[in-house]
Design brief:
protease, hydrolase, 287 residues, single chain, Thrombin, subunit H, Peptidase_S1_PA, 2 helices, 6-stranded antiparallel β-barrel, serine protease
């Protein structure tokens, strides 16, 4: 969960031993203003989350057409996601929970915005959500299982992104480069980007991640970033896709601050949940 302000999971102080960037920092708004510990990690989504692309560039026109923005019923952006089927979007579980109250978001409070690279415009289409599936073992972004599937009321016309195969290991090898997409903040104390941005990051070793974050689960998570920092996802990028060789392999989950040295971003390891994701089939309308 990445927070900016009260929602910044990455607002941890430099002295903190763990860097948590949960894109839904709002869930732990009280922690966003204090040093983040492994148990105090904050997500990267929501108005209180710090999930924006740091050190990246504007995504080129025509790229990543499967990247979606999630807004509430009022139109306020709070997370990202990926369209994997015409009626199915994969995002972070913490994006389906209200950051301040911890209560689940219903489908009536989530809108999926497609084909809108600039959120200041009315381009593209907005589709309502029929059903929200949140991983049954999800409790907090720092403990894993940070994945959810949104079933849409209507089929989207945009291209879809193929998820990684169940149990795949190669995309998570240290040094593998992936691209992250989102509309999150451009820095810890900078505003969110209204235009879709992207950044390429290398996967880091599980050992390096474990040293940065206590409780790091190698089966449920992976880290990406540079030892020196400088490039990262940030508040508002939560739930956004991490793509390797044209496949969805991860979701922005959390981190400590944004692009800080020694604190890479943490992502949901989707190969672990691929079977469960594919089992969530779209609801068929009667008649």
């Amino acid at each position: 969960m990445r927070c900016s302000g009260a929602h910044d999971s990455r607002k941890a102080t430099p002295s903190t031993s763990r860097r948590v960037r949960a894109l839904v920092c709002c869930l732990v708004s009280l922690l966003c203003g204090a040093p983040a510990t492994a148990a105090e990690a904050v997500p990267a989504s929501g108005s209180e989350v710090r999930a924006r692309i740091v050190g990246g560039d504007r995504a080129e026109s025509g790229t990543a057409p499967w990247t979606v923005a999630l807004t509430d019923s009022s139109g306020a952006h709070f997370c990202g996601g990926a369209l994997v089927e015409p009626r199915r979007v994969v995002t972070a579980a913490h994006c389906t929970v209200h950051p301040r109250t911890g209560e689940p978001r219903g489908g009536d409070d989530i809108r999926v915005v497609l084909d809108r690279r600039d959120l200041r415009t009315d381009a593209g289409e907005v589709i309502t959500v029929r059903r929200v599936w949140r991983h049954p073992d999800y409790e907090h972004f720092t403990t894993g299982h940070d994945v959810a599937v949104l079933t849409l009321d209507n089929a989207a016309s945009q291209p879809t992104l193929e998820p990684v195969e169940p149990g795949a290991r190669e995309p998570y090898l240290p040094g593998t480069r992936g691209t992250v997409y989102g509309w999150g903040r451009l820095g810890e104390r900078r505003p969110a980007s209204p235009v879709l941005r992207s950044v390429r990051l290398p996967v880091m070793s599980g050992g390096r991640c474990a040293r940065a974050y206590g409780g790091f689960d190698r089966d449920a998570m992976f880290c990406a970033g540079f030892p020196r920092g400088g490039k990262d996802a940030c508040a508002g990028d939560s739930g956004g896709p991490f793509v390797v060789d044209g496949r969805l392999v991860g979701l922005v989950s959390f981190g400590s601050g944004c692009a800080r040295p020694g604190f890479p971003g943490v992502y949901t390891r989707l190969a672990t949940y691929a079977d469960e994701i594919s089992a969530v089939t779209p609801v068929r309308r009667s008649g």
